[in-house]
């Protein structure tokens, strides 16, 4: 549904010679950037939402807006380009994904720094990716051990954090849905230029 809302471009497709090719019709996915930049500062329009297992943009749209066709609003506002990679996986799908990607879930994926303080000030934040051999040196010159400086992050923990982070999205408040659609249609329309054909179609090389 989302892509049906986007304007189109007549694009000249060629292999080597730019004067010898064919025109094809494609969706202008870059128009989403202009819209997001225009409305994102208005934080009062949105509310936080945690995506539960097996929920999809269309099921959330049905629950929130009483119409699954408004899934494009959720996809757009959360900058989702590919549902397979940008949307959180269910627990079952997540386990299948891990099984295909890793031979051992508990193997070390990478190492991250521990939070280190000196005189009540954080001088090394946690979560910075480092090498296995990393050891932190205090301002006093003392060299901390590996176990005091960094921690290992297993494959499972790494992938789980990435997936769980995707569950935190924003939703447009229902009372602003109609106005949002009007703004959307206005912003994505093309204005007269050398490439202009209609308000929803232009040519490009």
Task: Give an overview of the whole structure.
The structure is a single chain. With 205 residues, the protein is of the alpha+beta class. The chain folds into 2 domains: 3-88 and 168-204, no CATH class; 94-162, no CATH class. 33% of the residues lie in helices and 24% in strands. It has 8 helices and 11 strands. The chain has a 4-stranded mixed sheet, with no helix packed on it. The chain has a 3-stranded antiparallel sheet with strand order 7-4-8. A hairpin with a 2-residue loop joins β5 (116-118) and β6. α1 crosses α8 (177-188) and α2 (57-65) packs across α3 (71-77). Mean pLDDT is 80; it is low at 24-30 and 199-203.
Tell me what portion of residues adopts beta-strand conformation. Answer: 15-25%
What number is the mean pLDDT? Answer: 80
Question: Which stretches of 5+ consecutive residues score pLDDT under 50?
Answer: 24-30, 199-203
The dominant shape is: elongated
Q: Output the radius of gyration.
A: 24 Å
The helix-and-strand class reads alpha+beta
Helix content: 25-40%
- Summarize the helix and strand pattern as letters: EEHEHHHHEEEEHEHEHEE
Number of strands: 11
Number of helices: 8
Number of domains: 2
Q: The biggest beta sheet, please?
A: 4 strands, mixed
Largest beta sheet: strand ordering: 2-1-11-10
Question: What topology emerges from the helices and strands here?
Answer:
Blueprint: E1 8-13, E2 22-27, H1 31-39, E3 46-50, H2 57-65, H3 71-77, H4 83-86, H5 91-101, E4 108-113, E5 116-118, E6 121-124, E7 129-130, H6 146-149, E8 150-154, H7 155-165, E9 168-172, H8 177-188, E10 196-198, E11 201-204
Parallel strand pairs: 1-11
Antiparallel strand pairs: 1-2, 3-9, 4-7, 4-8, 5-6, 10-11
Helix pairs in contact: 1-8, 2-3
């Amino acid at each position: 549904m989302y892509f049906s809302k986007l304007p189109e471009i007549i694009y000249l497709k060629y292999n080597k010679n730019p004067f010898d090719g064919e025109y094809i019709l494609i969706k202008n996915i870059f128009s989403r950037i202009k819209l997001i930049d225009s409305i994102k500062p208005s934080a009062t329009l949105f509310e936080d939402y945690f995506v539960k297992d097996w929920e999809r943009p269309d099921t959330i749209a049905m629950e929130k807006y009483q119409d699954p066709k408004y899934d494009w609003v959720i996809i757009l506002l959360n900058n989702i380009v590919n549902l397979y990679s940008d949307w959180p996986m269910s627990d079952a799908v997540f386990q299948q994904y891990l099984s295909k990607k890793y031979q051992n879930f508990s193997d070390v994926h990478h190492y991250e720094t521990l939070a280190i303080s000196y005189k009540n000030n954080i001088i090394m934040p946690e979560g910075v990716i480092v090498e296995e051999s990393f050891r932190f040196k205090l301002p006093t010159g003392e060299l901390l051990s590996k176990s005091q400086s960094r921690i290992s992050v297993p494959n499972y923990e790494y992938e789980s954090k990435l997936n769980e982070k995707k569950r935190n999205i924003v939703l447009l408040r229902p009372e602003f849905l109609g106005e949002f659609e009007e703004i959307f249609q206005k912003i994505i329309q093309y204005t007269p230029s050398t490439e202009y054909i209609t308000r929803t179609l232009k040519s490009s090389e």
